[in-house]
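Take a specimen:
=====
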Amino acid sequence: MSDEQQSTSEPAQSEENITLAQFLESVSPGQVREIKIRLAVQAKNQSGHPIRFRLRLPEIQLHCPSDTCNGERFFRADEEREQHLDVRYPNWNFDYVTYKCSNCQKQQKTFALALRIEIDQSQQPRPLQCYKFGELPAYGPPTPSRLISLLGPGRELFLKGRRCEIQGLGIGAFVYYRRVVEGQTKQDSCGNTQSCSDDFGTPRSD
């Protein structure tokens, strides 16, 4: 398989090793990272080679938007499931992981992940490969509520632009942000939010 063919079948991967907590907290969706984490052997084949590993889910720090918290808090894996993941060698393993705020016990964060382990010649596991499909609520820094209220009818366009910017879609973000600015300018000039609300419509294709 050529390098070009391989690049189309495998997600882009960073050379930097990070912890699983850092990956969940700060890596945007659509990336593969090598994770430094302790793995416990759970099963071996008839030849004595490991085929299933277990990792413990770490606690992470995320922004909690609840009225009780409204700030950065510790999140831990939801107690409704076991506090670990099992990863089978050699294929990709797909799983959902849900975390809950340890302070208010209400706000949740769910990650859609793919994990894979490779084994070296001495039958020792290499760093865990982890890919993030997405997360809910969506990845990104919190948007101040005051800014949202100031934007008025341009709120949805601004949030779409923010998501584009976070995902590295600069041109798409620019289109949404431009529509917000144009809408705000027209709104200020006419002094009537209701009559100008149509200015915050679907972005033009020009």
